[in-house]
Amino acid sequence: MDHHRPTARKLHPSRVQELPRQLRLRVRVRWKSSSAFNGDKPWKAIRARGGIPQVVQTGTWGGAAALARLKKHNARVRRIRCWIEKVFGTCKRSYGLRRMRWLGLAKAGLQARLTAIAYNLRRTVTLLHAAA
């Protein structure tokens, strides 16, 4: 019966008027969707058919003061965050860290450590060539 459960992929946001037809099930369906379904009309249609709307929210709590604190925090950590993301991106792209090769937490940790060692060795060689 799970294959009849409505999902956000089955209904394009421009076809909100067809939403009740998609929710034929009389059970309490959790309707998970993107912010395209955020609003009064889609929520009423979902609730009218017995669904529970669970839509991604894009706003913030705290208004302008919270946004100012967030921007100040991001300005402080931007350089470090960019540096760290560069390392993780390189490890994912070039050193196979996109997927774990082995099952288990210990072996996954080993793979992450070996990847870090390989990255550091390669970076050391690059820095030594640049200094020479």
TrEMBL record:
Organism: Muricoccus nepalensis
UniProt-listed InterPro entries: Tnp_DDE_dom
Entry-linked Pfam families: DDE_Tnp_1_6
Protein name, UniProt field: Transposase DDE domain-containing protein
Limits of the Transposase DDE domain: 71-123
Origin superkingdom: Bacteria
